[in-house]
Amino acid sequence: VQLQASGGGLVQAGGSLRLSCVASGLTFRTSTLAWFRQAPGKEREFVAGSRMSGSGTFYSDSVKDRFAISRDNPKSTLFLQMNSLKPEDTAVYHCAASRNRLVAVSTHSGYTYWGQGTLVTVSS
Q1: What CA–CA distance (Å, rounded) separates 62 from 73?
Q2: Number of neighbours of residue 111 by Cβ within 10 angstroms
Q3: Which helix (H) or strand (E) holds 20?
Q4: Are 6 and 117 in contact (CB under 8 A)?
Q5: Cα separation of 112 and 87, whole Å?
Q6: Cα 47 vs. chain centroid, distance in angstroms?
Q7: CA distance 82 to 79
Q8: Minimal CA–CA distance to 86: which of 36, 10, 15?
Q9: From the CB of residue 53, how many other CB atoms can be counted at a distance below 10 Å?
Q10: Which DSSP letter does residue 103 get?
């Protein structure tokens, strides 16, 4: 299984970015998928998660109403649309996948597969 994340970059506060994560070797449609982030000197934290299509999406309080997670099952691609970005959103963003449909979405230990990360830098 491979997860390839992309779409990070430098953006001013208030701007937007769209992250993508292409998966291979995975039954994408039934997998639980998520985005986590890790800022310098901080622990990895949950950002957003998606159970298999139709089973719900989940967000951390810090990004709710600003970020949107979505998935394109035929293309095995996970997205994270990030709007109204703030300097505190600066981090390396990682996509994660689990074959377990019942995994705790926000717990990073529940995910077996991880992408390499893409850096998002938000300037003030």
Answers
A1: 27
A2: 24
A3: strand 17-24
A4: no
A5: 30
A6: 6
A7: 10
A8: 15
A9: 11
A10: S
